[in-house]
Design goal:
It is built from 11 helices and 8 strands. With about 280 residues, it is of the alpha/beta class. An 8-stranded mixed beta sheet has the order 1-2-4-3-5-6-7-8, with helices on both faces. Helix 3 crosses helix 4.
């Protein structure tokens, strides 16, 4: 059903986008955009910083085999209009919760969030506990642990191979572990122009905003980290922080993967996701 055989990033994204059922709910002065694929129990996906639903492009076809996958562009990201205020995660969480309650999906719903999307999803679960059955955080930040990022390279003024080399450096520093993982699709996704202005992720989750909100999350919480997640370092440290409020939280490590683990090693990630969602 889901054609992922094309080699063009633009064609791959467009093909999966065409196969989606689309919904819009209010967000600020505009709308929040949702896309859905598949059948079965609903599963909500939230994306990472400066991203969109496309952060899950290597996972949606697999997850949609057994689930009704609902991937959103969070307020202010992708095709979704920003909230009136962008100084914390709460306005985002409120818009997402109100939007989810308007959609024809049974709640409470399982939610899987990537990076800052996991942190915003935690705020949504705290704001509207009746909507969230469980929360799975993939590369979840905002737990107060020090970040392990090196310096990023500026792209302005660079052209040709120099610009491409800087883009590859930045993706390896932030998102992926292996140089071979920085393929044409990854480069394209990271450079996609958002319809709306970029939101500062630090205002939403850093440095410990997620750690502070987790005690208000009633749903079970589990975490998934790449083995070589540069921003968040030691997965054991991260889960120990989550277990301060959710002592039964399980830790799952995607081998050979960096921060964007669901993209870099989708086969291993899907085994973990299937086990968590089937539990």
């Amino acid at each position: 059903m889901y054609d992922t055989g094309t080699t063009s990033p633009e064609a791959l994204i467009a093909a999966l986008d065409r196969q989606a059922e689309k919904f819009e709910t209010p967000s600020g002065a505009g709308t929040m955009v949702w896309r859905a694929w598949g059948e079965g129990e609903p599963l909500m996906l939230t994306h990472g910083s400066h991203g969109s639903w496309v952060h899950w492009i290597r996972n949606i076809p697999h997850l949609a085999k057994t689930r009704r996958v609902l991937a959103c562009d969070m307020p202010g990201f992708g095709d979704s209009a920003p909230p009136p205020a962008v100084d914390s995660a709460w306005p985002f969480a409120q818009i997402m919760a109100e939007g989810l309650s308007r959609l024809p999906f049974r709640t409470p719903i399982d939610v899987m969030g990537f990076s800052i999307g996991a942190g915003v999803a935690a705020h949504m679960a705290a704001h509207a506990p009746e909507l969230v059955r469980r929360l799975i955080g993939v590369g979840m930040g905002g737990l107060g642990a020090p970040l392990g990022l090196g310096p990023m390279k500026r792209l302005s003024g660079l052209e040709g191979e120099a610009r491409l080399a800087a883009r590859r450096h930045n993706i390896l520093n932030l998102m992926l572990h292996a140089e071979a993982s920085v393929d044409e699709l990854a480069l394209h996704i990271q450079m996609m122009r958002p319809r709306y202005g970029k939101i500062d992720p630090g205002l939403l989750v850093a440095p410990d905003k997620v750690l502070k909100v987790l005690p208000r999350v009633q749903a079970p919480v589990d975490v998934v980290f790449g083995e070589f997640d540069r921003p968040h370092g030691n997965p054991d440290l991260q889960v120990s922080l989550v277990r301060q409020s959710h002592p039964h939280a399980s830790l799952h490590v995607v081998p050979g993967a960096g921060h964007w683990a669901n993209y870099e090693n989708p086969a291993a990630f899907h085994q973990i996701a299937d086990a968590l969602l089937g539990a």
